[in-house]
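Thread: quick sanity check before group meeting

JM: Hey all, I'm pulling together slides for Thursday and realized we never actually wrote out the predicted structure for the chain we discussed last week. Dropping the sequence here so it's in one place. If anyone has concerns about the input, flag it before I start.
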Amino acid sequence: MSRATGHGQQAQAWSDFWQHGSLTTFFQGSFQTGYDGPVADFWNAVFDELDDDRAILDLATGNGAIPYLAAARAEALGRNWQIVGVDYAIIHPSSDPRVRAMLSGVMLHSGVSMEQTGMPADSFDLITSHFGFEYADPQAAGREARRLLKPGGRLVLVMHHPESAVVRQARRDYRQTRRCLFEEQLDRKVIDLLDIVGDARSSQARARFRHHRQAERLRHEINRSMQRLIDSARGEDDSQTYRVAQSFLRVFADLVDRPKREKVEFVRQSRDSLEAYSRRMQSMARATMDQAAHAEFIENMKVLGLELEDERELKYGADDLIGRAVLFRG
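JM (edit): ok, ran it. Output follows.
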């Protein structure tokens, strides 16, 4: 696969995700409507160093989580900042009225590569990226950031850490999702069973298939697949395996009274969504730098003329490692 093709598929997977309107990559949980706690504290401390009438650019902005924090901080401090966010994927701003109001003065641009933004040189006092910079070609993105920074400007990145909970989960969920879809083909087996029993929408109709030989064989195949999947995930959190299975098996539970064609379409749409999720998890795992790659990245950024100001681990709570915070001065 060419880099361009891979980049395009990655952008599409993230475009599909952002259309749900989540402000961050955490579709569920405390970060769904924006970063808080130590994460927000870190970014607010970065923003606090900016004087009035400064310009901020957020790279790989997603649906604008960092611009949202910047706009809120500008309001709290009574400062006027030009805030811009760009992403290669399609941006879908949140429908939350508070978020939309805060982002009303922010310029968000879809389809913009951080390696080549097309923006004028020496335009920004601060360039940020939270879980985004490493998805690009870091060397090319570094050159572009250096070009865009005003003299003395700062580049501040929060990057994935290979030992963070989110990266470990990404690797685990990728493995388990791929096993469900490609090794055991759960969706195909469920559709095969639906071909026989899918129109049995009442308890009386379903009873007629209780001892149907082919239907029984397919039920046993699904059960055996589930057992193999559970066995393969032994020793690790297997919740993603159950989430995948439940997404398909819903057609035999709360969707049982729907027509067969709707059930089959639901399974197919679920598979598409799960494949997109697995691609996002794969891209996250691949983008995460180990210690050697990270050290090389830092040295390359220095060669570009960016001075390393600070580097630290960013945690949420006492033990929950979120990522690496890296701060450069142009």
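AS: nice. The chain has two domains: 3-162+288-329, 168-284. Confidence is low (pLDDT under 50) at residues 1-6, 26-33.
JM: adding both to the slides.
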